[in-house]
Design a protein that fits this description.
β2, α2 and β3 form a beta-alpha-beta unit. The strands form two sheets. Strands 1-2-3-5-7-10 form a six-stranded mixed beta sheet, with helices on both faces. It is α/β, with parallel strands linked by helices. α2 packs parallel to α4 and α3 runs antiparallel to α12. It is built from 13 helices and ten strands. The radius of gyration is 18 Å and the shape is globular.
Length: 300
């Protein structure tokens, strides 16, 4: 067993996550490794929820003992080099919409919020959350990346919200996260445009904090950890103030995703066929980078 993993204060045994722990920096790395498609399927969401619960328990226990928090940084990344995540489980969406199963669709959407909101608020444990995007972040993958306090991207990464291509908009946090960084017109343009953006374009918009060349992402995260540790009190206090002044609440995210569920149930047969084509394109492109661009092109 890897020494770093052995020292980890939480369970590292997962099927769709690759988890490691840097005890020197108090940094938990968890890399998305979903199967069969690189999307947020139900088993991945369950594993993420369990991992987050373990993190909270470990930190709460340390706080009660008066010890240093064992996990001060949580870094979300991907086990794949070409894809960060392609978003929601579109095959499941299509099935549930055709069955008119609002309850199951809302349950899935809620499960997404249940892992995104804790990340956005540092698990209420003064944890700095970081997303490292080295491949394509599409739809819910885009939302997951933006839910972190800090977004580091390698230059080859691309970001996109393609939901408008099948007559829908993103509903698991995109509007809330974007509206804290952009004005309403810019948010609407980004959501309704359905375009792929480069890492540098995201940096220009203020949606990515650091862009580095390919292969330099992990080193850039390490640099962030060193910089943040020197002024940890200032950074954590600033985030608390930001959450007070511009709060991202669980209730807001749930209210938005409920609107999204009702909108999804209004999709036409033509819209659903577009979703099916996108799922087929993801299946074909799974082993061929860049998967996200190929999948989006297939819907055109």
């Amino acid at each position: 067993m890897d020494p770093a993993a052995a020292a980890c204060p939480i369970d590292t045994d997962h099927e769709q996550l690759v988890v490691s722990y840097d005890s020197d920096r108090g940094a938990l790395w968890y890399r998305l490794n979903p199967s069969p498609r690189p999307c947020f399927n139900a088993p991945l969401l369950r594993e993420l929820r369990h991992l987050q619960a373990d993190l909270v328990r470990a930190n709460r226990g340390a706080r009660e003992r008066g010890d240093t928090l064992p996990i001060r940084y949580a870094i979300l990344a991907s086990a794949r080099a070409d894809v960060f995540n392609l978003g929601g489980d579109l095959a499941l969406f299509s099935q549930l919409i055709r069955r008119r199963d609002r309850g199951a669709l809302l349950a899935y959407a809620t499960a997404c919020i249940d892992v995104l909101h804790p990340n956005a608020v540092g698990f209420d444990q003064s944890v700095t959350t970081i997303s490292l995007v080295q491949g394509d972040a599409l739809a819910g993958g885009f939302e997951a990346a933006l839910s972190s306090h800090v977004v580091v991207a390698e230059r080859q990464a691309r970001f996109g919200l393609p939901e408008v291509l099948f007559n829908l908009i993103p509903g698991m946090g995109a509007y809330s996260f974007l509206s804290r960084r952009l004005g309403p017109a810019a948010v609407d343009h980004l959501i309704l445009g359905g375009e792929m953006l480069t890492a540098d374009e995201m940096l220009d918009l203020g949606l990515v904090d650091v862009v580095v060349d390919e292969g330099r992402g992990e080193a850039a995260v390490m640099d962030c950890l060193t910089r943040y540790e020197r002024r940890r009190n200032a950074y954590t206090t600033l985030r608390r103030v930001r959450q007070l002044v511009h709060p991202i609440t669980y209730d807001e995210l749930i209210a938005v995703t409920t609107i999204w569920v009702d909108a999804a149930l209004r999709l036409s047969p033509r819209d659903l066929r577009m979703i099916d084509r996108l799922v087929a394109a993801q299946d074909r492109a799974f082993g061929d980078p860049p998967a996200a661009e190929q999948a989006m092109r297939a819907t055109g």
